[in-house]
Amino acid sequence: MTHQQQYIVSGMHCGSCVAKVKNALAELASEVEVTLNPPRVVLKESKALLAELNQALTRVGAYTLSEIVEPKIAKDAAEPAQSWFATYRPLLLILAYLLLVTLGIQFIAEQRSLDVWMRHFMAGFFLVFSFFKMLDLRGFANSYAMYDLLAMRWRGYGLVYPFIELGLGLGYLLGWQHQPLNMLTLIVMAFSSLGVIRAVMNKQKIRCACLGAVFNLPMTTVTIVEDLVMAAMAGWMLL
Prior knowledge:
The chain is α+β, with helices and mostly antiparallel strands. It has 9 helices and 6 strands. The strands form 2 sheets. Strands 2-3-1-4 form a 4-stranded antiparallel beta sheet, with helices on one face. Strands 5-6 form a two-stranded antiparallel sheet.
């Protein structure tokens, strides 16, 4: 069965408006249907959040999507909000597994080193996170373009970024060129955090793309901490 989402559109006045709205949303769904009377949009097989869809529309005009509320269903009848732990459970599980594996490697090693542990942790971090992004490259690129300062200007960066993470992960795993690798990681993660900080400060309700388009994680300070911790580890190893 095809999954579809329906929204009310405000701001449309003619056939040209219909075409603009349809073209703006084309990259965010497998199929887009737009009607002027009634002013509605139907998206098929779309993983984009409402905020992402409206952000895409701002590029073509003063159009806004809003959810269709059934008259007999009150807002209070909606599903209760998830707890913080339930929301970030996938991310917490991944980090817990990485900690368990990397600490286990340190435990059985003849010589224990903080730098070696950080190198192993960062290798696992980048390899795992790039994997989830590559499960849906297009979906990740669309989400990443909502807040990353470079991806919102050049969408191709969103398609390249998972491969940058893959390269960093392999570099840390194989111990390639420690200083250049740490410098590149510091630059990439520090720059990435700028877009996240901007989105959080502006209170944008958008999806965090750290785990690609597979999990619907909200953009919060958790993402800022995630980026800055990786940048801090790279900076530490540069010293």
